[in-house]
Design brief:
Layout: H1 12-17, H2 19-31, H3 38-47, H4 49-59, E1 64-65, E2 71-72, E3 81-82, E4 87-88, H5 90-94, E5 102-108, E6 112-117, H6 118-134, E7 142-146, H7 151-162, E8 166-170, H8 176-186, E9 190-194, E10 196-199, E11 202-205, H9 207-215, E12 222-226, H10 232-237, E13 242-244, H11 245-249, E14 262-263, E15 267-272, E16 282-286, H12 287-301, E17 309-312, H13 319-325, E18 333-338, H14 348-355, E19 360-364, H15 365-373, H16 378-381, E20 389-393, H17 399-409, E21 414-417, E22 419-421, E23 426-430, E24 444-445, E25 451-454, E26 465-470, E27 480-481, H18 488-494, E28 502-510, E29 516-521, H19 535-542, E30 548-558, E31 561-570, H20 578-591, E32 600-603, H21 617-624
Parallel strand pairs: 5-18, 7-8, 7-9, 9-12, 12-13, 17-18, 17-19, 19-20, 20-21, 31-32
Antiparallel strand pairs: 1-4, 2-3, 4-14, 5-6, 10-11, 15-16, 16-27, 22-23, 23-24, 25-26, 26-28, 28-29, 30-31
Helix pairs in contact: 2-4, 3-4, 6-7, 8-9, 15-17
Domain AMP-dependent synthetase/ligase: 103-470
Protein name: Acetoacetate--CoA ligase
Keywords: ATP-binding, Ligase, Nucleotide-binding
Length: 652
Amino acid sequence: MQQEKPLWIPSAERLRRAPMSIFMEAAARASGRPIADFDSLHRWSVEEREAFWPLVWDFCGIVGERGERVLVDGEKMPGASFFPNAKLNFAENLMKRTGAGDAIVFRGEDKVERRLSWDELRALVSRLQQLFRAEGVKPGDRIAAMMPNMPETVAAMLAAASLGAIWSSCSPDFGARGVLDRFGQIEPVFFIAPDGYWYGGKRLEVAEKTKEILAALPSVRKALIVDYLGKAREAAASIENAEVLGDALTLYEPAEIAYERLPFAHPLYILFSSGTTGVPKCIVHSAGGTLIQHLKEQRLHAGLEDGDRFFYFTTCGWMMWNWLVSGLASGATLLLYDGSPFYPDGNTLFDFAEAEKMTYFGTSAKFIDAVRKAGLEPATSHDLESVRVLSSTGSPLAPENFEFVYRGIKEDVHLASISGGTDIVSCFVLGVPLLPVWVGEIQGAGLGMAVDVWDDAGRPLKSGKGELVCTKAFPSMPIGFWNDPDGEKYRSAYFDRFDNVWCHGDFAEWTGHGGIVIHGRSDATLNPGGVRIGTAEIYNQVEQLPEILEALCIGQEWEDDVRVVLFVRLAEGVTLDAALEKTIRDKIRTGASPRHVPARIVAVKDIPRTKSGKITELAVRDVVHGRQVKNKEALANPEALELFRDLPALKG
């Protein structure tokens, strides 16, 4: 049943001050037509892309030469070219601000706390740029980092981008094989690693792993070891051709940074698919496309302004890190956290928010769920007055967690559930500061994004579940995949399903409010009796139960059909008995539908997830069916897969 009352409505003052409102007035002037609400603004943005994207460029103050042409071959996907004559530098746009104010505030659990001013960040980037240049780094070279989310990582990325080099990163908790599966494909000339990192209060040294990785990366000319645990010199001494970053920088004094202005489509980042079904795809993103898309999302949809204090809980192996660092382009201070968000307890991130007057608090749906289940109520334990936006991504945010945010975290906050992906290094659907927040719904499509939901025959669905698609080209589409010269892998990934239309692989549904619900990955949808069911619909019901900490659902091939199997991780002291099974089934039957009710419910001690915290339904499905999981290194806890092999409960 459609909820009749929104959870939150923006105040008149919020609406007046919102950058999106100011942009809407500029759009009305530029277009010569009335644009008085978000729907008309969005319609104009996708119908008139050649007017919309230049307005974003000007409104967000992009530094560079825009050129005359805006869009060439705009009806081709892939093949469209945005701003084909433009010249810019990504780092130059992130380094506009100067002064003694905070550019970066860093916390490494409760072990390390540091601040870099804008001038100190600029000095560090300058010295890194000089180091890279002295070592012969040129446009198009790859610089790879296996790094914590710390200031040196941001500075090294900016120095690489200033020269037109291509940046690629992962987090130091990856195994050696997982790192090589990624960086081995792109042949970096530089490799940056820490001496170790903190997680859950434990020191984890990585020198031996770094040595193993470098032995298999012959393209690397130099390795830089960043001091985090106080062991950098010792680590560097044990690794051939490695030097402590601090020592290497002593040769260089801060100087003016020389920015290499390059074409809009010049490569900036190589990101990687999760890789749980094979070697990760190497997705190449452009400097211009990434910049203009992130500025549009952060300035207009997130309302980010100069002086804001911007946080997203992420590692350097997740695209949200790339999204977060772009906040510098809006003059925001980056609040970086590395380590466990539950060390020493679940208050850690809220402590950070209160202490640093955080204005944008970004996290995962799983984190919000864990806070609720832990019985925490930051609304009463913390002063979160400064927090204007609370953002959630990584997996669909369950309806009860929408309600918990307003009950248990903050009553007057813009809850922005967002969804997109590594594939576009940005969002298809996200928060809209001019609209109410309704329980369980993402507010709307991104400006300039021709998002729709289609059935299997390629027909738009005004209601009902279908494939999330984008019917027109947009600037942050990948340039392509690395080592895919004819583009076949790229086309196959997104355009095989519907010709000339991006098919994202999410199972989605429009709501009566014009919002959208993501029901999970479409390749993980269940098909009992030929009816498609989104796994998120089941999780939304099951995870409301206090006995269930987490759930994972698959379709098991059974007797020429598919049956729904639900795996549950139970709260401490809870046993999966007949009474609890009945409670689970009743909850799913009444909250979703009888078709969603699992044929089997199985308790497991752990659920496998990727390094970015997403549960891996496809990997579990492969194990249950006796198929090989091709890339266990992509998982944070690969040992958990063995819990699903040859389960007696699934034999009959």
